[in-house]
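worker-03 picked up job from queue 'complexes'. Input manifest follows; two sequence lines, order preserved.
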Amino acid sequence: MAHSIGVIGGGQLARMMVPPAVHLGFDLRVLAEAEGTSARLAATAVGDHHDARAVLDFARDVDVVTFDHEHVPQEVLRALVEAGVAVHPSPGALAVAQDKIVMRERLTALGLPVPQWAAVHDSAELGAFLEGHGGRAVVKTPRGGYDGKGVRVVRAADEADDWFAVVAEHGADAVLLVEELVEFRRELSQLVARRPSGEIAAWPLVETVQRDGVCAEVTAPAPGASDALVREAEAIARSVAEQLEVTGVLAVELFETADGRLLINELAMRPHNTGHWTIDGAVTSQFEQHLRAVLDLPLGETTAHRPWSVMVNVLGGPSEGTMGERLAALMADQPGAKVHDYGKDPRPGRKVGHVTTTGDDLDDVTARARAAVRFFEG
Amino acid sequence: MAHSIGVIGGGQLARMMVPPAVHLGFDLRVLAEAEGTSARLAATAVGDHHDARAVLDFARDVDVVTFDHEHVPQEVLRALVEAGVAVHPSPGALAVAQDKIVMRERLTALGLPVPQWAAVHDSAELGAFLEGHGGRAVVKTPRGGYDGKGVRVVRAADEADDWFAVVAEHGADAVLLVEELVEFRRELSQLVARRPSGEIAAWPLVETVQRDGVCAEVTAPAPGASDALVREAEAIARSVAEQLEVTGVLAVELFETADGRLLINELAMRPHNTGHWTIDGAVTSQFEQHLRAVLDLPLGETTAHRPWSVMVNVLGGPSEGTMGERLAALMADQPGAKVHDYGKDPRPGRKVGHVTTTGDDLDDVTARARAAVRFFEG
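worker-03 finished. Artifact:
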């Protein structure tokens, strides 16, 4: 019998698990939200991940269940575990990734470096936090945010009233997360993978550039990072993975502050946009590693093939026609570019693909990746 | 509309086209011989490739038809072309790969270097050839041979009588190919890809080691090859591709003779075992390149990631259980090994997978690939 993995969610992360599953001889099955999702090739069922019965039916005969996203409700996750299904990452670990206030509480309790934060229930509490932090702060909805959604910079106590109204509809626990607006030099991301038996593997620390709250570009390794910084980032990510008992890939998004400290911005417990470069740039990609980790197989080497890798997202995609129609021109211009088309309809701001380039000279590698992606714009 | 490719045949070559199709957003469809073939994930039809109706039905709405093997009869290929289907490589090019006597005739006419050969109709003609070539020769069935099947070293005129009897059953054209037994220093393989509009890309020349007529190990690049040898091999392969108008990947298997000449041993017009290392070892794999080429898209960079890549085949597979059951031990021992499991049942001598390693030190890279494959033996 082949190792079998059930993935809940049919987005591009599930899609990009298909190639390593094909190579390693794994049986990958996807529970997709709808027909025609990005991971349609491996979709063996269509169903709602809020529906415990649909998820249990899907999970019945796989070795392990894992995820394309972090939106499966805890009660569904718990039902899987009670039914004897191996679930990685576990519901307990996922709970921390699903709620930003729970995450801040846990990280704070573990002594890990996070921005100053508070859970606020109304504009008065938000006003008090603003007063203590120079009149500026970041407000986040604890749940459901992604790619810049549910994140807002505020400069006055009433600038989150609409969100307070929305969370109030969800009952007594009407609360928002507020954080200091960190003055950062740049954003970094440390990816690691951990398997249930405890082994951890780390990829090189990378620099990420966000635009409108969405990952736009990743450079691996992070240029000019000191050995001390690299060690600290890896130590933080290892500590999160171990102490929260994360299984599979864990992405720790970090701020490098103006005064040289690292602060944890976000966590993701799945393959992550800041690790897409590993498909073409590292001996073991984050997608292969995630499958190995959740199956509790030994982890693969994370060395980069070349000194530099740059990944640029295709955000939105062509205003007319498809990415496929632009391929010929791109390939003629950039024969070394590795193109990834998620098979999704173009839509402003939507992540519809990415391009990775590798090589010895960072300026050249960056220029080639950017040039390639421009063929998908306009 | 996504680019769509129909592949006739559901073996491991079709299977290994799936990952690049997923990444590039191509719609890959496979016409498989049976349920449960190696390429089952992409199989959209099951049918006999000798059945023109089944093949035409399959080919109706794809952009191009290509192949997992070279066994589709010419009349079926011609029916596709007459129906307006784009077929790459073309029937005319494939005819040369399908019949070893046709191949020898064409290569000889083009002035390309081949072993001395003859088409022989009976043991008397074979005896005459043996007499002129030191009493030893290689006899090959013109059609249907692969992986050492249909190839025999003979030392007496009557040692091919059984084969003459078999080919005689197939009618008037009862003929065998006989060739001089080349004293070679080693075997090499030059892979190139050519697209219909003429562009050609070449990968580094590789050394191959055959065991019982089956590819066992490939080293890229060929150790110690002089610049002149590398240039000559590439020139030969480019010449074959251009003059036979091959489209897609072309493998030219070569003998490097004891006196330093190159002679063409075999041709294959599809991704080839001697190019499997490119999946993990080169910027563009032979499988991605084949899809690009048959779609007439610009070809990708063929540079190797690291100084050395070694590919070792898994021949036969475990005597008990599955490759999957051996993975944990292999991965613990060889974290840098890239494992490819074709999802086929183990059987003595059968190609059921391969392992590739890459790195800076050839001895180390070779030792790691061999060590990994040993986990699938016994």
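worker-03 released lock.
Chain A touches chain B at residues 1-3, 15-16, 18-19, 22-26, 41-42, 279-280, 283-284, 292, 297-301, 303, 305-306, 322-324, 327-328, 331-332, 335-336, 338-343, 353, 358 (CB under 8 Å).
The CA atoms of residues 22 and 28 of chain A lie 8 Å apart.
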